[in-house]
């Protein structure tokens, strides 16, 4: 029986070029996965490849990863396609509202680990494993199957991609994730990893964090943080990663305005939370959402950026989320009381 990686490669063997695409605001898991597949295709098929970027990469760690590992990314909006081109999507699925990819793009393969299903009909090669912590672990297994040893740069990218996906508790990981980590650790550049993990933070980061803390409200086992002006879209995830560690909650949501969108990020601290499905239901037709068991994200396009309209949208979201989590409608308790906020200002 042909292995998955054999079938993947044979689907691309006639391509003139292979372009790798992923979700908007690419994260370490998607960057590492694109790099590994490009390396595999180059080594095994000798076909030219290119990596793309949909939207910006603004999280400090992710920018550090791109800079330090010198990852060359073609902005998707500037990409043109040549005859015989094959496109491979990683860490995402088509029509999930997570990319700006045209429907005319010749998608040959989709490799992903998200719970949220996309439109996969007619795509020649699909490898979606929902139980996996990271897409990087899946592509690392392709490298092992094909006896392609990653160089230090690639191993570093894959390791960072995996560790960023496995960070929460309870762990969202499978034996294949741990196997990949063991395989990659000796090869990866640990100094570069430390450099990426500890990327220097801009002043706007602390501004955003303060805003988030001052606007966090607790409803039973849920905490919601509203941010009027998110310095960058990926910050919503950083806020919930921090808030979910609050000992009195099991759920954390951050909703922040960025440009003309409301960016959503959610975390659960309990197993079998099905957070991706839950957030998708809560958002419904207002926008798009999805993700994993304990981590979810989404986006709602704002029809108006007036304070009133945003407030109304947030109140609707809160109502739906409380209902979905079977929490009675109540007044939220501030995480930090107004009195404390004011007192801290004056002291
Ligand atoms: Mn991923």
Tell me the layout of helices and strands.
Layout lengths: L3 H9 L4 E5 L6 H18 L3 E5 L6 H9 L4 E3 L9 E6 L16 E6 L12 E4 L6 H11 L6 H14 L9 H10 L5 H8 L5 H12 L1 E4 L2 E6 L7 H9 L7 E8 L2 E8 L6 H9 L4 E4 L3 E7 L5 H18 L8 E2 L3 H9 L1
Helix pairs in contact: 2-4, 2-5, 3-7, 4-5, 4-6, 5-6, 5-7, 10-11
Bound molecules: manganese (II) ion (MN).
The site of manganese (II) ion has 6 residues, from loops.
Write a brief structural summary.
With 347 residues, this protein is of the alpha/beta class.
Structure, explained:
The protein folds into 2 domains: 4-197, inorganic pyrophosphatase (n-terminal core) (Alpha-Beta Complex), CATH 3.90.1640.10; 205-346, Diaminopimelate Epimerase, Chain A, domain 1, CATH 3.10.310.40. The chain is built from 12 helices and 13 strands. Helix 3 (60-68) links the parallel strand 2 and strand 3. By secondary structure, the chain is of the alpha/beta class. The chain has helices spanning 4-12, 28-45, 60-68, 135-145, 152-165, 175-184, 190-197, 203-214, 235-243, 275-283, 307-324, 338-346; strands spanning 17-21, 49-53, 73-75, 85-90, 107-112, 125-128, 216-219, 222-227, 251-258, 261-268, 288-291, 295-301, 333-334. Helix 2 (28-45) runs parallel beside helix 4 (135-145), helix 4 (135-145) packs across helix 6 and helix 5 crosses helix 7 (190-197). Strands 11-12-10-9-8-7-13 form a 7-stranded mixed beta sheet, with helices on both faces. Helix content is 39%, strand content 20%. Manganese (II) ion binds next to loops.
